[in-house]
Amino acid sequence: MTTLWIKNPNAIFTANTLDARGGLVVRDGHIVEVLSAGQTPTQTVDDTFDASEHVVLPGLVNTHHHFYQTLTRACPPALNKRLFPWLKTLYPIWAGLQPEQHALATELAMVELLLSGCTTVADHHYLFPAGLENAIDTQAEVALKLGMRATLTRGSMSLSEDDGGLPPRTVVQSEQVILDDSERLIKRWHQQDEKGLLQVALAPCSPFSVTTDIMRASAELAERYDVGLHTHLAETEDENNFCLRMFGQRPLDYLDSVGWLNNRTWLAHGIHFNDEEVQRLGAAGTGICHCPSSNMVLASGICRVKELREAGSPVGLGVDGSASNDHSNLMQEIRQALLIQRLRYQADEFTHEDAIYLATKGSAQVLRRDDIGELAVGKKADIALFKLDEPRFSGAHDPLGALVLCGASQADAVMIHGEWKVRNKQWLGGDIKQLMSRHSSAAKTLFSAV
Ligand code: ZN
Q: Are residues 232 and 281 located together in one domain of the fold?
């Protein structure tokens, strides 16, 4: 068993108050020592990584994505559209998704995230057209192959256009199929591997694409197996109007009425909440995934991150699906969070460290994980190391500030469970050019099939 000393970093963000300027000691997939400035390891080390030129962060944690959407980035018919027409344009394209395309999209998205310093990914997959029934199993296999930590959320759509919903009939499933498959996936993949890589959560797509029964039944199933619950909520004003028309309730009242207002739930976007709703979310400990780029691209609004956190909600960060971002770079998303939050709050009320916190400890709390998202003894050795060696950083003074303000996008080295996955900005697990080539041709095939 190798003991590694990540020695004397230039700067380090631990997400806690520890002085860690002496670095970290890693053994057996975990952090076993955190050293203050000038300290040396108490145990014999087999290997040393000189981090004197590195800014060290906990491995970043992404709490919302749709991997398959990497196949419809910058897609001409969907450009410059509002959320509902944007979705209605893309559904018929997505409905043709084939298993091989889905596997490539999953791998590409995970590797893209990894290269940006992300070590834990959450994906919200809700498309199960004929032939793609095992979409989540495919994602689990890819995550295990890459050695990436993943929370795979079993999405669902059960309310088609014919029943007043938004998606076409070909992509919705019956309630029984959804529930049976959800239970099967929990038993097969949730916390079944030795390294704690895989978790499963249940994720009806949104109030406008599932029935009330599936919302209730998913909450019951999640409670029975103690897994997370996830959905999109309060993303746009259109959604508020839809919920008032369809259910006679605002989105949060509806969520409460179906048994979801609790701390196993995390919501993507969470923008259009009033003061009273923010307090209710905080009291319940319901998590929010802030998706800055997506919210800007679709002109959805600005999440009330500070009020939500003060009320008691964990708040994390997500890149969201590539069709509305259109990248999967979590380091860049930290900068976007800083910039968009500065439109809501004063410059001293939301700092660059607050933005990094969202993507590390905040996101871990959203996923109800206390073993990742910070650098401390006993935590998983999921670590992202950045170098300030590009022109954009030249002359920068504060290393942590430079990472966010000058716009870092690529990690120099990334470790998951004590294993190097990226070194010298290169993915060690395969040939990135070949993966991109196969993924690009899958994207062309999917688009041209419509
Ligand atoms: Zn989304």
A: yes
Q: What is the pLDDT of residue 393?
A: 98
DSSP string covering 259-288, please?
A: T--STTEEEEE-----HHHHHHHHHHT-EE
Give residue-wise pLDDT tens across range 401-419: 999 999 999 999 999 999 9
Instruction: Say what the pLDDT of residue 169 is.
Output: 87
Place of tokens 């897994």: 227
Query: What's the domain count of the chain?
Result: 2
Cα(305) to ligand 1 centroid in Å equals: 18
- Indicate which CATH number applies to the domain containing 112: 3.20.20.140
pLDDT at position 167 over 90: no
Residue 363 CA to ligand 1 centre (angstroms)? 16
C-alpha distance from residue 228 to each of 6, 154, 308, 311, 358 (Å)? 33, 10, 19, 21, 19
Residue 343 has pLDDT above 90, yes or no: yes
What angle separates helix 135-146 from helix 175-189, to the nearest 10 degrees? 20
Distance 120 CA to ligand 1 centre (A): 17
**From the CA of 167, how far away is ligand 1's center (Å)?**
14
Residues 191 and 305 both lie in one domain: yes
How far does the centroid of ligand 1 lie from the alpha carbon of residue 444, in Å?
22
Q: What is the whole-number distance in angstroms between the Cα of residue 5 and the centre of ligand 1? A: 38
Report how far ligand 1's centroid is from the alpha carbon of 65 (Å): 6
Separation of CA 40 and ligand 1 centre (Å): 45
Over range 155-181, report the average pLDDT: 90
